[in-house]
Amino acid sequence: MRVVPLAMLPGFDESPSAVQGTVVNISKGGVCIRTDAPLPVSRPVRGEISLQAEVAVGLPVLMQVRWNQKCSAENQYLNGLQFLV
Fold it and tell me: Are 26 and 57 in contact (CB under 8 A)?
């Protein structure tokens, strides 16, 4: 999964940079991804979920970071993202 923080919203002045992550689980309300760094909680992000099929398809999604947690014994983080639309 590729995630890009949205910088154009009020209160978020940092320039956006893409973050790569691996989907741990997904539900109708959101997705949990594993990343090398935590995503800022409450931050709106634009994401693209890649679907593996005969033809590669990227599903665009708008989400908000709800929580993150450091993985024990690894230098990675779990991030909970809620679907907004």
Answer: no
pLDDT bracket for residue 63 (50, 70, 90): very high
Number of domains, the chain? 1
Task: Domain of residue 23: give its range.
Answer: 2-57+66-83
Sign of the C-alpha dihedral computed for residues 17, 34, 27 and 53 taken in this order: positive
pLDDT tens digits, residue range 11-26? 555 556 788 888 899 9
| 61: three-class secondary structure by DSSP | strand
What count of Cα atoms within 13 Å lies in the side-chain half-sphere of residue 81? 36
